Amino acid sequence: FWPFFYTQFCGAFNDNVFKNAIGILIAYKAYSIGGISPEQMVSLSGGIFILPFFLFSAIAGQMADKYSKPRLIRFVKALEIAIMIVGMIGFIHENLPLLLVALFLMGLHSTLFGPVKYSILPHLLQSDELITGNAYVETGTFIAILLGSILGVQLISMQGGAMITGTAVIVIAVIGFLVSLSIKHITPVIPELKINLNPITTTIEIMGITRKVDSIFNSILGISWFWFIGIALLSIIPVYCKDFLHARESVVTLFLVLFSVGIGVGSILCERLSFKRTELGLVPVGSFGLSLFTFDLFLAGQPMALSTGELMTVAAFLATPYGKRIACDVFLLSVSGGFFTVPLYTFIQQRSQKEIRSRVIAGNNISNAFFMVVSSVFLAALYHYKFSYPQIFLVLSILNIIVAVYIYTLIPEFLLRFMAWSLTNIVYRLKVTGRENLPFEGPFVIACNHVTFIDGLVIASGCPRPARFVMHYKYFDMPFISRIFKDSKVIPIAGANEDPEVMNAAFDKIAAELENGEVVCIFPEGKLTHDGTM
């Protein structure tokens, strides 16, 4: 795991050294093409980096399933070295078109790496280690973003920064390649797979694969929406600091630090609160935080600019009436992002079949890329129509609420898991022993005594996988809550003397769920227990 971890860390680190160096050249040194404004140029550069994900992710997913994943990683890291040589030439000659070509190629590099990045984890880790592994990868990725962003800004701002930055990105690429040599061998999943090089038909095919399981597809939509918000915020930060907050590059660095550390903190907290399992109940917590703290950025307004008209330092910015508030909002919305994404990534890894996992993740990357490109275009449109930065934050907050309601309507499991998690971790502080005895894969039946009417929520919270509960049909048909039971995939049952048809349908459904590898929970007593024993 660790050689892979450090390899992906170097890749994310180098991406952000390069991207942020270009961003500073555009925002602070007015590099542009064809009279495009700096704000629109920053958004355009973000779109250029993301475009290869949309065009080539499907082909990358096929490659990740056909070839040995470690060998593919080493090929991609060697490609990165060549791309960074092109980037160095662009920096030295201050050639923005060449830098944008290199940026597009770095997007291609990340596109090829993406399906391997998440599909390799189940090969390197046990099922009960996946949530921890994903938390570490997310934390490492955003720490790499943090350090890369800081280094990119600082290097390009130095005397002779073009040469220094160009040299740095090549050195980082070489280190990443050398580390990748230590990743252990993994046998290809489907070596006989024929790669379709037509990006259109392959993309359609892979998106069709992701749609086969609704919960996986809607989880992909959730991750993609996070990146819609994330790319908008990251694109805004440089120009928001300079033009609205009247702050120096050091405040840009501060915000990037807060954003990256926040994602890492959120990811680690998610792992701790999930107890080494995929806890979908934390996803609504994350989406609520994203809306809340983005909305507060709208409410915070604009700190007072220095009377001298100079751009503010970090200390001067934090001394303004709303400086600390804005900084806290940036940190807490990124913590919420960690809560939002880690369970969704782990959910996709666990629910997708091994033979198609890389292509499912490629489908996720295609969807992410589409949402990122749309985000860049959407942001450019808001600039065109003269939306202020607080108004943009308000729009993002409202859109996030709308999307959250839509997703949770389609996948009630998120809210139901949130209810179970809240009940057993906040209200009752449930302590679970023996959880390690429950298999992470394959069908099994939980048979337990029936103490209270919230037993289902208690079991749901303690079980590492979603269970199908068997319930007496009269409870199942109760007004107002029947819809919740249906959304939870509860199986209604009746006694042979009550309704033989319902009873037979229940046993058929139980058999079908077990055949599909699901977990079924039954209460053999059929009513609340009298003495609490089995």
Give the biggest beta sheet. 4 strands, parallel
Number of strands: 4
Helix-residue proportion: over 70%
Reading off the top of the CATH hierarchy, the class of the largest domain is best stated as Mainly Alpha
By CATH, the superfamily of the largest domain comes out as: MFS general substrate transporter like domains
**Which regions are unreliable across 5 or more consecutive residues at pLDDT < 50?**
none
Rg, Cα atoms, Å? 25 Å
Beta content: under 5%
Tell me the domain tally: 2
What's the order of the H and E elements? HHHHHHHHHHHHHHHHEHEHHEHE
Q: Any idea what the CATH architecture of the largest domain is?
A: Up-down Bundle
Summed up, the helix count is 20
Outline the structure in words.
With 534 residues, this protein is mainly alpha-helical. It folds into two domains: 2-411, MFS general substrate transporter like domains (Growth Hormone, Chain: A, Up-down Bundle); 423-522, no CATH class. The chain is 71% helix and 3% strand. It has 20 helices and four strands. It has helices at 2-29, 38-66, 69-92, 96-119, 121-124, 130-157, 161-180, 199-210, 214-244, 249-274, 282-300, 314-318, 323-351, 357-384, 389-410, 413-427, 455-462, 473-476, 482-487, 500-515, and strands spanning 444-447, 467-472, 491-493, 519-522. It has a four-stranded parallel sheet, sandwiched between helices. Helix 1 packs antiparallel against helix 7. The chain starts with a helix and ends in a 12-residue tail after the last strand. The model has no long low-confidence stretch (mean pLDDT 83).
